[in-house]
Structure formats: structure tokens, C-alpha cells
Amino acid sequence: MIAFIGGTSLIDSDIFKNWSQKEVKTPYGTVSFKNDKNSLFLQRHGSPPLPPHSINHRANIWALKDAGADQIIAINSVGSLKPGIKPGSFLIPLDFLSFWHISTFFDNDMKFTVPCMDALSAAKLLDRCRVHKIPVNHGGIYIQTQGPRLETRAEITMLKRFGDVVGMTMASEVTLCLECGMPYASLCSIDNYCHGIAKIPLTMDEIQKNVRGNLKRIEKMIKSIHGEAL
Q1: Do residues 62 and 25 make contact, with C-beta atoms less than 8 angstroms apart?
Q2: Crossing angle for the helix pair 57-66 and 170-180, to the nearest 10 degrees
Q3: Is 68 left (phi over 0), alpha (psi -120 to 50) or beta?
Q4: What tens digit of pLDDT does each residue of 117-152 get?
Q5: What is the β-pairing status of strands 2-6 and 95-97?
Q6: Domain of 75?
Q7: 3-state class of 31 per DSSP?
Q8: What is the number of domains present in the chain?
Q9: pTM surpassing 0.70?
């Protein structure tokens, strides 16, 4: 069973309106998600939506595992650290950095995981993008920051030396999925240049405009993968 995890770009989408609503009680809280045959959809921010730093990642991932998910495709909104990775395009990261906060189910257990993205799932995601002529960069490093504020110019000047995009959610999800044995791949929606990368000052209006512009492509991708999974 494949599970889609979506963020702010899908909050107003109607793509899941005919999917049935499910609820799972976990040790970390109750989680609601959508179900349609062999696919699940979870809105990571919940309802009403929580800001990135308050998302209950452990409850979310536990709920998907409990519901039978064995593969995760996530949609993550990000800012670009590189002029060549343009807003309106997508990126499938193959690695990540997350020094500030590392989510785990292993609070009291001496268990360790080797952090990695799932290369096979990423390759399948890339193939779907090419079929639908969706502009995508394959490979790159995702850097997770804490939120809820965006990064300062000074922080971006430092981070652009080490990564390609910045977000606030993916690394936490990857880590927890690894601990649960669920392969995870991400389609990152490039919604803006990070603060100071472009000459034009960054605004929230610009970000929202690009989120809306990428929505139809994201919906097309989800429909394609969902149809293939049935």
C-alpha cells in the first residue's frame, strides 16, 4: 500500500474529496487520513493545520504504518538555494541534512539506523515526472530547518554551501520511516528562491503564487501513481 504525505500545497486541493476518511489512535495522538483502495493520503499539518515546528511527525508516521502503508511518497514545499533550481520546478533529493532536531521512535532503545533516501522509489518518481513532462531535478541535498520563520540571509549564505533546497519537514519524516522500515521518496516543489538568492526580495505573496502554480502538476503526479498502484 502506498501512502502520500502532503503539505501546504495540497491543503486546498479537491483531489482527495471522494476518498474515505479514516482515523487511527497512536501512542503519540490520534491521526486522520484519507483512504482509497490501495492508497492513503495524510495531510502532515492536520486539520486545522499546524505550523511546521508543531507537526506531530511521530503520530503521523505511526498511523500510516499501522494502516498498512509500505511505501511513502511525500510532497514537500521548499526554497531553492541555487539559482539554477528555479521556482516552478521540482527536485527529487537523494540525501539530507538535519542537525537541529532529529525525530525518533527510539527514545529509550539502543537502536540505530543508517539515514538514506530510497533510491528505487526516487527512480520511479523520476520516471513519472518524465512521463508527464514535469520539470524536475534528480538528486540534490535537502536541508531541514526548524521553522516557523524562514531563514535569514546570513543563514542562507551558510546553507547554500552544503545543500540545494531548504524545508522544514522532510528529514523528520524520512528518519521515522526508516525506523519503521518504510521506503520514502520526496517530490520537492520549488516554491521560491531562498532569502538572498535572487536579486528581487523574497515575499510571502511570491511563495503562495508559486505554490498555486505547481498544484496542478502535483495533482497529476499523484493521480498517475495512485492509478498505477490500484
Answers
A1: no
A2: 40
A3: left
A4: 999 999 989 999 999 899 999 999 999 998 889 899
A5: unpaired
A6: 2-229
A7: strand
A8: 1
A9: yes
